[in-house]
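Lab notes, practical 5.
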Amino acid sequence: MAQADRRESTNDPARVAVTAAGVVSPLGFGLAETLESLRSARDCVTAVMRFAVTQCRCKTAGQVSDWPVTGKYPVRDACIARRT
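Output from the prediction step:
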């Protein structure tokens, strides 16, 4: 509350920066795909394949698959999205 009062007294408007919006989850990429997966009760838990899990108790996880960038996004964004 004190911070809001300070803003009003200095006429400094609140600032908001949106850096990204959307859904990236094991259920899908984007709201439509994620909602469809939820509605169809899709099971997104699979065996972990990206790293060794021999020392872990849990061998499964809800993993995000590789981002399907081909043809959907500008090349600049596709380069940023690649996994190493």
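Observations recorded by the TA: Residues 69 and 78 are 6 Å apart (CA to CA). The longest helix spans residues 2-10.
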